[in-house]
Design a protein that fits this description.
264 residues, 43% helix, TIM Barrel
């Protein structure tokens, strides 16, 4: 791995090699998502806890302070919406020149394996890897499933992650599932855990994140379960403790409760 790529990865990860990525890219297919109507206001109090921000170039330029920003993972696939015919029908939306221009530390692209758009989205990934390797820019493949959440089992996700790694992804973002170690063990590049749908309680989030870390993930890329929480700062602090302080669910709950009590 060349110096530039290693340097960009070092910006994204903590000194412990683990990561807490904060995605706020949901508007690219959902529009003004609840609690992301004003993204800059949403993430400002969370800034001390996450390591990198995952967003689109539009939000980056419109509302993110270029002077004091955390490292950026740039969302570079899209072209679909919640009201369109199929969320999987994505294309690459951002050129390598634009990626370099905004000084992204990495890029992210979705793949939809097992859909009619499998080949198209895997080609998007391969094309992006080809372009980004020339400039030393890491590529995060996102194993998206659209509305078909029942696909989130170890066999399917292990298949997706391995294919993404084979096509050159630097890191893969995927969902937690039972037997998550099978997903990680079959993937020769690091795996980060996606949040998926919003959970009912904070303890559900602490449990699956801790379990995934114990089974080999290097971190999380988790948004809705933080900034749609009734206590987003407490959630961010608790998840930071799991990722970077090896806290278990009980300790994370204690951090959450302490922050909530302090906020009151």
């Amino acid at each position: 791995m060349d110096w530039g790529k290693r340097n960009r990865l070092a910006r994204l990860l903590g000194p412990d090699g683990k990561c807490f990525f904060m995605p706020i890219d949901h508007g690219y297919f959902q529009g003004p998502t609840t609690n992301l109507e004003r993204p800059a206001e949403t993430i400002a109090p969370l800034d001390p806890y996450y390591d990198a921000l995952f967003c689109t170039r539009g939000v980056l330029r419109a509302v993110i302070n270029p002077v004091a920003s955390k490292p950026i993972i740039l969302r570079v696939s899209g072209g679909t919406s919640m009201v369109g015919h199929d969320l999987a029908d994505e294309v690459l939306t951002t050129s390598i020149q634009e990626i370099v221009r905004v000084n992204a530390s990495a890029v992210g692209v979705s793949v939809f394996i097992g859909t009619p758009y499998e080949k198209q989205t895997l080609h998007n990934l391969a094309t992006l890897v080809n372009d980004c390797e020339e400039y030393g820019i890491p590529v995060m493949a996102v194993t998206a499933v659209g509305r078909e959440m029942e696909k989130r089992d170890a066999r399917y996700l292990a298949l997706c992650c391995r294919i993404c790694a084979e096509l050159g992804a630097t890191v893969v973002k995927t969902y937690w599932c039972e037997h998550f170690e099978r997903v990680v063990q079959g993937c020769p590049v690091p795996v980060v855990i996606a949040g998926g749908p919003k959970c009912e309680t904070e303890r559900e989030v602490f449990n699956f994140v801790h379990d995934g870390m114990q089974r080999g993930a290097i971190g999380i890329n988790l948004g809705r379960n933080v900034w749609q929480s009734p206590q987003p700062v407490a959630m961010a602090a608790a998840l930071h403790a799991i990722i970077h302080e090896s806290a278990g669910p009980d300790k994370a709950q204690a951090v959450y409760d302490q922050v909530v009590h302090g906020e009151k």
